[in-house]
Amino acid sequence: MSTITTYDVASGAAGEKECSLDLGDKVLYRTMKDAIVQYQANRRQGDAHTKTRAEVAGNTKKPWKQKKTGRARAGDRKSPLWRGGGNIFGPRNTRNWGYHLPRKQRQVALRSALLGKLLDAEVKEMTGLSFDAPSAKTARRILADLAPKGSALVLTKALDPDAWKSFRNFPRVRIMPASEATAYDLLAHKWLLLQEGALEALASRFPGRKEA
C-alpha cells in the first residue's frame, strides 16, 4: 500500500492519504518499454524524402554518344552516379512507422507506470481544484507548491476547459483528462498531479483490477 501526498488548493495545506488500489506486485519495465516504443513510433512523421532518378528535374538526353569517345557510357544526367542525380536507396516518405500493441498490454503498461510513480513518491492529489474561469495565477501557485522542479502532468477527473486553459501555457506542463492518459504521458513527466477523483478515473481503465 502506497501513500499519496494531498494538497488543498484553497489553503495550501499538505497531508497524506493511503492508496488502496491494487496495482500489482512489481513494476513491469519491459512492458512499459514496449508501450513507449509504440507511442513514439506512432508519433513519427517520416518526413525525410529523397528523389529517385525519375523525380529529379532534367532531361533524358544522352550526354554523348555510346562509343569512341574514351569516356564511360552514360545514359542521362539524372544517373545516381552523377552529381545532382537521383538517389538509389534514400529514405522515402511513403513508409508508415505506426503499429499498435494489444489494448490490455497498453493498460498493463499504464498500471505499471502509475505503480512506479507511487513507489517513487511522485504522485500528488489536489483537493478542491475547480475553476469558475481560467486563472493562470492559481495554476502558477499550484505548480510552485507541488512541482517546483521538473515537468508535471496534470490529470483531471473529466474534461475541464477552464483548468486546461489555466495550465496549458506553462512550459514542461501538460494537462488532460485521466481517460486520455497513457503510460508514455506518465513516464515523460516527473510529477503526476491529480485532481480529486482523477485517480479513480484512471484506475477504472485497468483490466481486472479493483480497489482493495
Secondary structure layout:
Elements: E1 2-8, E2 14-19, H1 29-43, H2 103-119, E3 123-127, H3 136-146, E4 152-156, H4 161-167, E5 173-177, H5 183-187, E6 191-195, H6 198-203
Parallel strand pairs: 1-3, 3-6, 4-5, 4-6
Antiparallel strand pairs: 1-2
Helix pairs in contact: 1-2, 3-4
List keywords for this structure.
single chain; 6 helices; 2 domains; 29% helix; 212 residues; alpha/beta; 6-stranded mixed beta sheet; Ribosomal Protein L4, Chain: A
Question: What would you say about this model in short?
Answer:
The chain is of the alpha/beta class.
Please characterize this protein's 3D structure.
The model has no long low-confidence stretch (mean pLDDT 91). Strands 2-1-3-6-4-5 form a 6-stranded mixed sheet. It contains 6 helices and 6 strands, in the order ββααβαβαβαβα. It folds into 2 domains: 2-44 and 98-203, Ribosomal protein L4/L1 (Ribosomal Protein L4, Chain: A, 3-Layer(aba) Sandwich); 46-96, no CATH class. α1 (29-43) packs across α2 and α3 (136-146) crosses α4. It is 29% helix and 16% strand. The longest helix is centred in the middle third of the chain and has 17 residues, at 103-119. With 212 residues, the protein is an alpha/beta fold.
Order of helices and strands: EEHHEHEHEHEH
- Second-tier CATH architecture of the largest domain: 3-Layer(aba) Sandwich
Count of alpha/pi helices: 6
Distance between the termini: 10 Å
Structural class designation:
alpha/beta
Low-confidence stretches: none
Our estimate of the beta-strand percent is 15-25%
Broad shape: elongated
* Mean pLDDT across all amino acids: 91
CATH class of the largest domain: Alpha Beta
